[in-house]
Amino acid sequence: MNNTFMAEAFTIPEVARICGVKPVTVRAWISRREIASTKVNNRRYISEKQITDFYRNRGNEEYVDHTYAPRKHVLND
């Protein structure tokens, strides 16, 4: 990997701050292949273009990921 990419790439915690979510959410997006990332020496990096593509594919910058939200239990009467 070249130094230019590394200078322009963000770590998972940095992407989480940019997107206003927790790092675990960014990891879930990577796992579900919703956002691309590059692995370098056992660390994941995400470029600005990959973040832009992620939002473009979402179609809405106000998406809320409920992956790790507490589940509501429905009780039968």
Write the layout of secondary structure elements.
Layout lengths: L2 H6 E3 H8 L3 H9 L6 E3 L2 E5 H11 L19
Antiparallel strand pairs: 1-3, 2-3
Tally of DSSP β-strands = 3
> Order of strands across the widest beta sheet?
1-3-2
Radius of gyration: 15 Å
Number of alpha- plus pi-helical segments: 4
Portion of residues in helices? 40-55%
Shape: globular
Secondary structural class = alpha+beta
| Elements, N to C (H/E) | HEHHEEH
Mean pLDDT: 80
- Which residue ranges are poorly predicted, with pLDDT under 50 across at least 5 consecutive positions? none
Q: Could you describe the largest sheet, including whether it forms a barrel? A: 3 strands, antiparallel
| Gap from first CA to last CA | 59 Å
- Portion in beta strands: 5-15%
